[in-house]
Write a structure and sequence with these properties.
alpha+beta; 3 helices; 21% strand
């Protein structure tokens, strides 16, 4: 092979390598875009399911709230602090899926690479959602109130009341009686 012949082939090999790298980057971008889209759809479905579960729980508690509405004054019998995870907004799912997909894409070749990318995105989406919920967790207080009519009801509220405190009950809300 002559020196001139070698010079003519070098750019061709380099161009092929660049073209192959560009195609791989396009494939990664398509896979990550598809994963983000799927994650957003899954997040929307989860949000809809949570909203439906919340309205079902509200409908069930309305009957007990109606009986509590008749007696609007009571005394706090017990208070228990409860840690409640926050609600995921979808940001954690998307961020986790993208990061998981990118990490998974660095592993394996061919079909294995695709499987690792998808698996990383799913695992990352789940982990991101859990991290977001833990960051947004809050303390609520499960408060047992004996109403003046003798019935006992539990309320989960954001304010801590002292045992023995006189309270006014309005729906699911408690306020100190004056």
């Amino acid at each position: 092979m002559t020196y001139r012949h070698h010079l003519r082939q070098a750019p061709t090999r380099s161009a092929r390598a660049i073209s192959l790298q560009a195609r791989r980057q396009q494939m990664v971008a398509r896979v990550v875009s598809a994963l983000v889209g799927l994650t957003l759809v899954a997040g929307g479905l989860l949000t809809a399911l949570n909203a439906h579960a919340g309205t079902t729980a509200t409908a069930k508690s309305t009957a007990s709230a109606a009986s509590a509405a008749a007696a609007t004054h009571g005394t706090v019998q017990a208070v228990q602090a409860v840690q409640v995870k926050g609600k995921g907004s979808g940001v954690g799912v998307v961020a986790g899926a993208v990061l998981g997909g990118l990490v998974g894409n660095q592993m394996g070749k061919g079909t294995g690479n695709t499987v690792m990318t998808v698996g990383g995105a799913v695992a990352g989406g789940y982990a991101g959602n859990e991290v977001e919920k833990n960051v947004k967790k809050q303390t609520l207080y499960k408060t047992t109130v004996k109403l003046d009519d003798g019935t006992v009801h539990e309320y989960t509220v954001g304010q801590q009341f002292a045992v023995g405190a006189k309270v006014n009950v309005s729906g699911k809300k408690l306020t100190l009686a004056h």
